[in-house]
Amino acid sequence: MSEKQDLEKTSSISSGKEGSSISEVDREFERKTLRYVDWRILPILAMVYSFALIDRTNMGAAYTAGMKTDLQLAVGNRFNLANSLFFLPYTLLQLPGNLILRKVGARNWLSFIVLAWGAVELGMGFVHTWRQLVVLRVLLGVLEASFFPSLLFILSTWYKRHEYQTRLATFYVLAVTTGGFSSILAYVFSLLNGRGGLAGWRWIFVMEGIITLFLGIMAFLFIPEFPDQNNFLTPEQTALILKRIDDDRGDALPDPLTTQKVLHHLKDWTIWAYGLMFLLASLPSYSQSFFLPIILKGMGWSTTASLLLSAPPYGPAVPYTLLVAWLADRYKHRSGFIAISVIICTVGVTLLAFAKSNDVRYFGAFLNGIGNNGAIPTILAYSSNNVVSHSKRSVQTALLVTLGSFGGIIATNIYVAKDAPRYTKGLSVTMASQGLLLVILVILTLHFKRQNRLQREGKRSKPIEGQEGFYYTL
């Protein structure tokens, strides 16, 4: 019996009779199943990813807390080098990690790399030269590389296209909000200054490394496999999840992953466009994560105030991001919400760069956080909604995050020490990147609109994405 026949047989069991459809399944059973999936998947993924963000971007906090002096990072471009070299392996190893995910097992692979990078993060608290710091940052990039694309891939296989962004935004907001308070967390850990003979900035790495190690254990216990491999749902619940996905886009079960397929998917220019959009959207995010404490200190705030004031700009982003996700799923639309969010972000970066008043500049950081955090999940949903098949989804998510990591490389090299304290050059490049993002968005959306029209008029030689009845989400 084929996998497809197995799915159909199991689906009939879930509804109690042969050949019944998803519409005949008890809706309360469906709601309870989805609610259980949400609670089982989203919190653990969000918590682990939040510490991936913290472990990746805590350099600015440690620099402000004294690492600058102890490791002589202000000499030349040492600080920028330590930040940017993280992204070299992080960029190169995204796709290989996604391609082996199903073979190794999602839980095994993800819990292993979380434990490994937690150990590296802990080790960063004991470096004595800036070169040792660089080596550990590179190793951190190796281990974190496949984590985020794997999360996106896994999440996309559990939900229908137009309920995905709400879940993605919930996951993302939980992660980024926790990550946004990393400066406060770093400040608290820095108060351990002198304990055990360690400087405050060292305690930032040590404590955050210990927390990551704990999360690695939790990941092994709770991170889910793919729907067809899960072991926490009943057979009836599993059948319901798979049937819903098959009805929505016809790819509930994985298709064989071959080198030929990977190369074929890489020829699709649209997945490169998604990646470029994510690259441009990541610039403001990395800029704020890495450099906001330093920019605030340049405004005249003390070290303590700079760390504490770096957290509030993430607060208003939470309700905005969730509202955008709810509206985008409700109206099955993405591009307009991306455009609005990007414009808000651009205004924020402009104020942060060119406003005379420090109060207005600080307000710009709020707008940057609001717009950027609203745009990123919508771009992720926009890209995921418009691909079909597990093989293409694995390539698309890995390529998206691979190109997005270039945003981190760019951010860590356009904010250089000689431009302190205003960093006008770096902020200007970030501002221009948002204009380019809008141009790509318009081109891509017009292309999708035209393809949908040709499909409706029967003028396409084959269905969109090779799937009958499939239309692009605009």
Automatic annotation (TrEMBL):
The keyword Transmembrane helix applies. Coiled coil: none annotated. Pfam families: MFS_1. It comes from Crepidotus variabilis. It is found in: Membrane. GO terms for molecular function: transmembrane transporter activity. Keywords: Membrane, Transmembrane, Transmembrane helix, Transport. PANTHER family: MAJOR FACILITATOR SUPERFAMILY (MFS) PROFILE DOMAIN-CONTAINING PROTEIN, PERMEASE-RELATED. Residues 41-453 form the Major facilitator superfamily (MFS) profile domain. The chain crosses the membrane at residues 37-54, 81-101, 108-128, 134-159, 171-189, 201-223, 271-295, 307-328, 335-355, 361-382, 394-415, 427-446. One of its GO terms (cellular component) is membrane. SUPFAM superfamilies: MFS general substrate transporter. This is Major facilitator superfamily domain-containing protein. Its main location: membrane. The keyword Membrane applies. It is a multi-pass membrane protein.
